[in-house]
Amino acid sequence: MFEVHAHLAVGNGIFFEPVVQYVVTGDPYWNPYAANRSKDGVDVGATRIVPLAAIFGLAPG
């Protein structure tokens, strides 16, 4: 698998993490009962991180 990801600060402690993965010769490890073996492909996703303590004004730690 080849992966490219980033960690971007949006503001006020909020972050956005996009990711793009290219899977080469995928295997059925996570789905051993799959009828077909997966082919090469692209996976795109993102994560948004919102620290609730910072938003509510609570002290970290």
Helix-strand layout with pairing:
Layout: E1 2-5, E2 8-11, E3 14-23, E4 41-49, H1 52-55
Antiparallel strand pairs: 1-3, 2-3, 3-4
Short description:
The protein is mainly beta and 61 residues long.
> Structural class given helices, strands, pairing?
mainly beta
Distance between the termini: 36 Å
The figure for the number of domains is: 1
Question: What radius of gyration results from the CA coordinates?
Answer: 18 Å
Order of helices and strands: EEEEH
Give the overall average pLDDT: 84
**Beta-strand content bin:** 35-45%
Please work out how many helical segments DSSP would assign. 1
**Helix residue percentage:** under 10%
Strand runs, count: 4
Largest sheet, strands/sense/barrel? 4 strands, antiparallel
Unreliable stretches (pLDDT < 50, length at least 5) are none
Coarse shape: elongated
Folded structure, characterized:
There is one protein chain. The chain has one domain (2-55). The longest helix is centred in the C-terminal third of the chain and has 4 residues, at 52-55. The mean pLDDT is 84. Strand 2 (8-11) and strand 3 form a beta hairpin. It has 61 residues and is mainly β. It has one helix and four strands. Helices cover 7% and strands 44% of the residues. Strands 1, 2, 3 and 4 form a four-stranded antiparallel sheet that branches.
